[in-house]
Design a protein that fits this description.
The protein has 125 residues and is of the alpha/beta class. The chain has five helices and five strands; from the N terminus they run βαβαβαβαβα.
């Protein structure tokens, strides 16, 4: 069975820790890497030997905002087909407004509890 590869781009260490714990609880073949720097993540993707199946992306990031990251990612032919999931503490409605001009993205607000996070991740993956 093929592994699912996830890149989490989030600068909040606590949120990253919670996300990884939720992924591990799914008991699926998932490899997760984390980048706390959106610009570094984009540069690493451009030279990566293995591309992620999903990028979970926080919108409020230093260097490049989530929207800027997506816009630059979509300009690289090898990267433009990666599934992006906006994973942010903004409300769902705010996220919809922030991403209305961005194509092919899923969005979900960071949930209030661990079980809800696990359930949402299970549905997406």
């Amino acid at each position: 069975m093929k592994n699912t590869v996830i890149l989490l781009v989030d600068d909040d260490d606590d949120d990253c820790e919670l996300f990884v714990a939720a992924i591990h609880s799914l008991n699926k073949n998932i490899i997760t890497t984390i980048s706390n720097n959106s610009l570094e993540a984009l540069n690493n993707l451009k030279v990566a030997a293995v591309l992620p199946d999903y990028i979970f992306l926080d919108m409020q990031m230093p260097y490049l905002s989530g929207a800027e990251f997506i816009q630059q990612l979509r300009q690289v032919p090898e990267l433009c087909k990666i599934q992006i999931v906006i994973y942010s503490s903004h409300s769902h409605e705010t996220l919809k407004n922030l991403t209305k001009e961005l194509e092919q993205v899923q969005i979900f607000s960071k949930p209030n509890n661990f079980n809800e996070l696990v359930s949402t991740l299970d549905n997406i993956l």
